[in-house]
Amino acid sequence: MKLCREIALVILLIAALAAPSSCEERIGRLKYGGGGDWYANPTSLPNLLEFAREHTALDLPRREETVEPGDPELHSFAYVHVTGHGRIRFTPEERRNLREYMLRGGFLHVDDNYGLDEYFRREVGEIFPDRELVELPFSHPIYHCLFDFPQGLPKIHEHDGGPPHGYGIVHEGRVVLFYSHNTDLGDGWESAEVHNDPEEIRLQALRMGTNLLVYALSR
Cβ distance 80 to 104 under 8 Å? Predict the structure, then answer.
């Protein structure tokens, strides 16, 4: 695993040195319909992006951009984050655009902020009726591509008890949608004073989030 991480760092460094300054990756937050709080955890992504810039050679912005699921611009984003506590609903046109985005190389990270699960699972079944949302093994590269997580997702906040779960939709051997459930990574990315989490907990969340960015941007 150490060799794998070293190779990943070398690849990222070479890519960063070769890329022109105008090739900054676009990172999005999905503004979905249905009434859920898509805007939850406002400090999470800026903090994650800052941490990832410090620990990788990725060309990342300082803030995410808001993008809607039916917007053609969706296809220019390298990584799109979805969070919230409740209802989420897409139109048929939005589902088609999201599916096309992921199958053409995009990466969607859905992070249940507690209460999203029922609605998200319904929607992902509509987007991918031909594919299963499967739990990824702890050996999957998403847990090892930079920081090592031998037991899978770290547990950040307690919801219903039990361990956290990392699910994925896989297309041609690549995870195109990652669903973090029963952990609340986004809470761990928030500024320290928001939840008063121990620093080690925040660090684990930020490291796992950085793995997701590295995986998404190394496609």
Answer: no
C-beta separation of 109 from 82 below 8 A = yes
DSSP 78: S
Q: Do residues 200 and 206 make contact, with C-beta atoms less than 8 angstroms apart?
A: no
Amino acid at 6: E
**pLDDT tens sequence across 76-119:** 999 999 999 989 999 999 999 999 999 999 999 999 999 999 99
Token pair 């547990």 is found at 155
Q: Which of 121, 42, 128, 66 is nearest to 89 (CA)?
A: 121
Task: Delineate the domains of the chain, giving CATH numbers in brackets.
Answer: 2-10+25-206 (3.40.50.12140)
Phi, then psi, of 3 in degrees rounded to 5: -65, -40
DSSP notation for 131-195: S--EEPPTTSGGGTSSS--TTSSPP-S-SSSS--EEEEEEETTEEEEEEEESS-HHHHHS-HHHH
The pTM score is: 0.89
- Two tokens at 112? 């249940």
Distance, CA of 3 to CA of 169 (rounded, Å): 27
